[in-house]
Queue: 2 jobs
Job 1
Amino acid sequence: MGTVGQNYKNSAFLVAIRGGLVLLAAAALVSGCARPDGTEARRPLEAPPAPAADRQADRIRVQAARLRAEQARIAAARRWGLKKVPLEAPPAPAEKPRITTRDGFEVDGHEEKELPPVFTTIPTRHKVVFLTIDDGAEKDPAFLRMMSELKVPYTAFLSDYLIKNDYGYFRKMQRAGIGLNNHTLHHPYLPALSYSRQKREICGMQDVIEKQYGTRPALFRPPYGNYNEDTLRAAKSCGVRYAPIWNEEVYVDHWEYREDDQRIHPGDIVLSHFRGREDWKGTMPDMVRRFLDKVTAEGYAVARIEDYL
């Protein structure tokens, strides 16, 4: 918002003085309209509005750019063997939803100690889901190309012992706008460890991500989805604000569900892993095809989880 009086240059000024306001219109007219030699100064002219033809041309350029982008997505969907073009997610919400721990997933004193919430779904009325991919074992260049060409967002949760042989692969991912988050240094079963050892695993991975990628993550996913109070206290001490887990998991050849209805729901977090033929009956692009074909057929778009937090 502009400073009071800034749009009144070369016209009347309102001058606040102790005891009241004095309007110095006459003085302003003299000082604003006359030069020292007594000749009248010309007021600057306002720029004329853009002609209607120019505004129409701008609208046409915007529409043409959108059409080119949509044509590129159609071509990418065909090239990567998708049944349909992935749906485009709605804009990120201006007002972020309130994130709370899922019922039954609390630890003692969870809310009182303001520990990071553990959740499997983000509250939203939109038909969106969130793809999250764990660990970092497989580093498939085709996966990076596929996700970039399709413009599909996802979030990575990384473990150092699996990514340290190629930090650069995930740097390319980060340059494409993908969030890189914490999945511990060595992927241990955390509840079996002391508080101090859990803190080393979590804070140590924060340090690695900060050193390699320039940021300390706000998101942490405990390995196997297992945690206790010490886990969340340690995570909080390391700067973690959220502990998302998942509601479904997608593989190259099937889905697994947390809910009894065996369905996906608005705001669900979907888990997968960086895996290839050594572990799966297929590749990461095969997993993405299975994921996108299902969510698109059911009317869901893929959104970026960080946009909702």
Note: The longest strand covers residues 128-135.
Job 2
Amino acid sequence: MRFKVALAFDNQSVKEEILEIKEQKLGELSDEEIERAIEINIRSWLDKHLQIEWEVLEEE
């Protein structure tokens, strides 16, 4: 099963990618279980590609 993921920031498209879960991994899963597998796959993809940096600024 292939699905497209689109990452946007402030309504601007930042990155798009096609992800895939092999059909044999989905086996006899219910629709809800397949949806959960897709969400897990997307979360893993996002963890690999998204980085947020921050720092504390001194008060003036």
Note: The first helix runs from residue 23 to 26.
